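Internal ticket #5521
Category: modeling
Description: The requester needs a full-assembly model to guide mutagenesis choices. All entity lines are attached below as received. Residue total reported by intake: 1226.
Assigned to: D.W.
Attached entities:
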Amino acid sequence: MIKTLAKHVKEFKKDSIATPIFMVLEVIMETIIPLMMASIVDSGVDDSNMKHIYLMGGLMFAAAGFSLFCGIMGGFFGARASAGFARNLREAMFCNIQRFSFSNIDKYSTAGLVTRLTTDVTNIQNAYQMILRMFMRAPSTLICAMAMSFVINKKIASIYLAAVIFLGICLFFIMRRTTRYFNMVFQKYDDLNASVQENVSSIRVVKAYVREEFEKNKFKKASENIYRMFVNAEKILVLNTPLMQFTVYGCILLISWIGAHMVVAEGLRTGQLMNLLTYCMNILMSLMMVSMIFVMVTMSSASARRIAEILEEEPDIKNPENPDYEVEDGSIVFEDVDFRYHKNGEKPVLKNISLSIKAGETIGIIGATGSAKTSLVNLISRLYDVTAGKVLVGGKDVRNYDLETLRNQVAVVLQKNVLFSGTILENLRWGDKEATEEACMRACRLACADEFISRMPDGYHTYIEQGGTNVSGGQKQRLTIARALLKKPKILILDDSTSAVDTATEAKIRKAFAEEIPETTKLIIAQRISSIAGADRILVMEDGRIDGFGTHDELLAENEIYRDVYESQTGGNADFDQDGGEL
Amino acid sequence: MAEQKVREFKGGGPGGPRVRGPKPKIENAGQLFLRMMKYLLKSYKWHLLIVVICIFGGVLANVQGTMFTKTLIDEYITPLIGATHPDFGPLAGAIATVAGFYLLGILASYLYSRIMVNVTQGTLKNLRDDMFQHMQSLPIGYFDTHAHGDVMSMYTNDIDTLRQMISQSMPQFLQSIITVVSVLASMLVLSIPLTVLTLVMVAVMLVSTKKTASLSGRYFIAQQRDIGALNGFIEEMMEGQKVVKVFCHEEESKAQFHELNENLFDSAHNANRFANILGPINAQLGNVSYVLCAVAGGILALNHVGGFTVGALASFLTFNKSFNMPINQVSQQMNSIVMALAGAERIFKLLDEKPEPDDGYVTLVNAKMENGTLTETEDRTGIWAWKHYHKAEGTTTYARLQGDVVFDDVDFGYTPEKMVLHNIEMFAAPGQKIAFVGSTGAGKTTITNLINRFYDIQDGKIRYDGININKIKKADLRQSLGIVLQDTHLFTNTVRENIRYGRLNATDEEVEAAAKLANADGFIRRLPKGYDTVLTGDGGNLSQGQRQLLAIARAAIADPPVLILDEATSSIDTRTEKIVQDGMDKLMRGRTTFVIAHRLSTVRNSDCIMVMENGRIIERGRHEELLEQRGKYYQLYTGNQIA
């Protein structure tokens, strides 16, 4: 995991190395300064040597200046290294996600991906900066101060060593317990927030059923629980301070006692004693810091794991080595195709599918939810790979084509479609970057989108909000059809893409398709019989297999499912509304 | 529809861009701080008193310890030097005394940190509870006009910053102030000139902190802006990732991402750069201050000015350090305090939101018929009555709940400037089915929002069983209405509990009966654990149709006399739809029903059809009548005839 992440430090290696070096230099300076300080007291003040005081004072100024310089440089390099590391991680994740196939994408939720790219990266950025600046700093303070103490007086220094070991062991146990507790608390804490989220989004249900009190009680119970868990975790954490103080004060008192004897008997100088006391503080503080960093790093390790997961995810659909860049025509052949979403999935989604569609045909596809209509068409543009058998487009296996070529020739209007923030024209040009305004307008006429676009104040330059919230469902569907048409594909697949378009307009779109793009193979998945009744042939899907394939009249005569659906829709259950279910 | 209208004046949808400009400056930081303190004191007055005392004690013990360094050298060690038989007795006594002080200090600091754990977590818990409680009382309008993400961030981000402030910043602040004051006093006692020198250096530190902070502040604002832009882009692209794949748009989105990412790198690295150097600058200024005092103090001590001794110098230098440290700390805590106050501001704003007004006094009670008159009873009789207290006469009357609803010249707008419903007149007799048809945005959903008073009307009257709905207690009004919304919301809980949500005291048998009525029983039994299957993530593992069936069952168990239904079935295949439709039909039987209709069968079977356009009812009547009129309804109907 760390290795995966560390690879992305890249051009910031220099900064990442420079930061701790400067931090260590700063620490060395900080350790030397008290030495000079002692020298002022011992050789200067005690021996009444003003010259020595000035000399040492000057040196100390220089040391402080150099220390400042190191501190600033460390700060600069640290900021650059961590911000740069974060930048690289984000970039690497985003680029890898762009390589993801549909099945890779299915593994993660949108929110999950967003969190990884935002919050998790920020956590890592902070942790990295912390490591670079503090992780080196604290131990080196410890080592320097310890070394200096040993230089001054071995006996007293060994008191420190004992203190450090004592404190270290205690901190280790405290931290181990608290990190475990905190991991548990944060899990519960996330659950609590998830339940708030749930309440906010279902507030209409809560209010409609007058369940405010019920919700309040539910929340109160959960929040009480969180409170107790947090208190239990922090109860242990607050032992840190008294423990630390106990050790520091204990050392000070011990040193005072032993130091006093040494000053008297062994000629330890008072300045040196002062220094030892300062070092005592430094040593124990830095130990404390190490333990805090340790907690923070463990807390961010969950983020690191999530990021590494994305970075290590291998896209399972890749371009072939010597790809074909030419799609002959819009014919489609399925040969004994089996398909399942997961390699070891229990039950195949598609079983033994064989069918052949000629270029230019219009095919309607109908079937119940879960009958694998979408799965079937997704194989054509190789959004997923077949588990067995093969899919041929233009007479060649789809796995032999260059992915971009294939997907440009096989345009899919997805069931769950998305418009992006930007003008209508910009959105349309996803289909063809070079498309002229006239070409865009033509596509919109075909998709019956021009009439509402022209009614908009800014026409084709109208700005679409993120997620297309300022157009209605039917309008959105028509725009996404126009966008797909701009690709001038040999095969056009509409996956339930006119469900929110009223039947009259839908009929107009169908007519335009038949007249304007006759050579394009058209596959139309729909719920309404009226959407597909006029197709050349209709495919009836049931539970992952083909139940019937023929013209409207043939199916009506022979296919029970088709007849069922037909009757239910022309009977009392017919669709009434103008714009379908979009609201 | 309502949502679409509303979205115009809210800052982006739930998943909308989180672009927020620079953090707004807090206008009345002082007031906010005081309010926060009041909130703390409300529940933890005595706790906080002990904390303050403990902090005091801790600081004093610390100062005592530092003073000890001075006396250690001057009074205990120096006299011993050169003595042939040094007497360590006094030293031992002194050390014992100081040890006592230290012990008290340790105890005090443990006590205060331990109490602060309870105070911090308790206050956060109180805040969370208060926020949630208050949020439940807010009108639907609040949720429609506030992005859900923003509401959520109060529970997460803002509460987290407050944690930091209460548990760390505030005690540290107090500690720092006490330390500064007491150390200052001790320094003044030791040497006035050196104290002045120290203070001058502190002034330099403060100026440099301010300069650096303002430098980094500019970049922090830029950083916030760039984070917002990048996050917005990421959200949008992750949402549309499949479309990106289908259109081979990967390279373009990479390029766009790269640009935004570079911008963020620039601002983030600059912002952190300046924030990072604040520490070293102050630390070194502290060192300089230390050196200056050492040199000056050395000179003073050498020349024995005012009896200044080497030991005094040693103490002073320690004080110098402990004087600079808290100032350094306070300047670093400042940032987190400002951030926490900004969070507190948002939280208090939520707490200050006006709750849903409810002046209703007519309540819904169980009733029974006794000698031809309706009387109140405790038992659930299946008969309900409106209990109406007439203030003028001082009498109470009971009216049987029947489900008669009348709209009398109702006007409504989500904002006063823009009316969306005009002159709505309609009536539904008990048991009647009223269908609303019309295009998107005609105002169908809006009407249903008014009956249960999710929104209050601007003009006109709505009467329920002859009672103005404004007089009915909201909870009772809503209890008498069942709603099946087109977006089904489920809770993280078992299927059984989700259905029971409609009536909390329903028995398991009743739950299953309701599920059977809604045609949901079949699929529920096929779930891995049947009725005890736990649904998570808003029932994400169920299909749209199944979710709707559960919503129908939930309404069925509530068994209300009036039903508001939103038929939305476009994402369900025909066969499931038949099941859902059948469930809805069963539910509607014998109830007054307002239905936003999408199905021909529903419309045909309705007692009255309201054809809506632009917030007005333009045609009304039965199916056949309307067809004869050859108006809009006729157009809608024939336009959809299957060829």
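Resolution: model delivered.
Comment from assignee: The longest strand of chain B covers residues 363-370.
Ticket closed.
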